[in-house]
Design a protein that fits this description.
The chain is α+β, with helices and mostly antiparallel strands. Helices cover 25% and strands 32% of the residues. The protein has a five-stranded antiparallel beta sheet.
Amino acid sequence: MISRYFISYDIADEDRLRKVHAVVKASAERVQYSVYEALMTEKERVLLEERLKRVINQKEDQVIFLDLGSAQRTELPELTTLGLVYCPQVRGSIVL
């Protein structure tokens, strides 16, 4: 089955940034500066992750794969990160 993914990256080094950009650009369409959308099978995603693991520094860089599922799917299922752990923002109390 083909799934829709958002791929986003934050790379600490310019040389690695260029390499990551080239790897992702070959498999996905740019949505924003470092955010891409890709339609791919699970096998294609795993292969892309393996290519990226060879390029990034897992202690300094981050690549996020957001699996949006098929086109008919409305919920946001799985979030996979490479490198730095993704920490969602927590919204505190709001005083009006």
